[in-house]
């Protein structure tokens, strides 16, 4: 799943795309959804989402709160393995 800054004055991380078969897809997230919280902790921008997800291990279950069409929904998500393909984009050199 890739995110970008939310638009239209909304705070959160807007979903840019969702990989088929990913935990985000399994939770029902779609491009355009805006993630506003993880386990009740507010997400104001994509960096917040990345920080909150990195605080967990693969296999942990978290509750993602997202907005779609003005409606807020909570979805349980079991975090997958963070590979280079599905990890939040970082500007750090590979290790």
Please give a structural write-up.
This protein has 95 residues and is α+β, with helices and mostly antiparallel strands. The chain has a single domain, classed as Pdz3 Domain (Roll), CATH 2.30.42. It has 2 helices and 6 strands; from the N terminus they run E-E-H-E-E-H-E-E. The protein has helices at 23-26, 46-54; strands at 2-5, 13-17, 34-38, 41-42, 61-68, 71-78. Strands 1, 2, 3, 4, 5 and 6 form a 6-stranded antiparallel β-sheet that branches. Strand 3 (34-38) and strand 4 (41-42) form a beta hairpin. The longest helix is centred in the middle third of the chain and has 9 residues, at 46-54. The two termini are 22 Å apart. The model is unreliable at 84-95 (pLDDT under 50).
Shape: globular
Query: Can you give the mean pLDDT?
Result: 83
The assigned CATH architecture is Roll
Q: Main beta sheet, described?
A: 6 strands, antiparallel
Total number of distinct structural domains: 1
Going by CATH, what is the homologous superfamily? Answer: PDZ domain
The total of beta strands comes to: 6
Low-confidence stretches: 84-95
Beta strand %: 25-35%
Characterize this entry briefly.
This protein is α+β, with helices and mostly antiparallel strands and 95 residues long. The chain is 14% helix and 34% strand. The protein has one domain: PDZ domain (Pdz3 Domain, Roll), CATH 2.30.42.
Structure characteristics:
globular, 2 helices, alpha+beta, 95 residues, Pdz3 Domain
Layout of strands and helices, then pairs:
Layout: E1 2-5, E2 13-17, H1 23-26, E3 34-38, E4 41-42, H2 46-54, E5 61-68, E6 71-78
Antiparallel strand pairs: 1-2, 2-3, 3-4, 3-5, 5-6
């Amino acid at each position: 799943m890739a995110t970008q800054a939310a638009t239209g004055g909304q705070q959160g991380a807007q979903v840019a795309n969702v990989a088929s078969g990913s935990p985000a897809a399994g939770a029902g997230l779609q491009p355009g959804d805006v993630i506003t919280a993880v386990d009740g902790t507010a997400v104001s921008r994509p960096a917040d989402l990345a920080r909150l997800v990195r605080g967990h291990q693969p296999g942990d279950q978290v509750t993602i709160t997202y907005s779609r069409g003005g409606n807020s929904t909570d979805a349980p998500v079991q975090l997958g393995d963070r590979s280079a393909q599905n990890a939040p984009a970082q500007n750090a050199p590979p290790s």
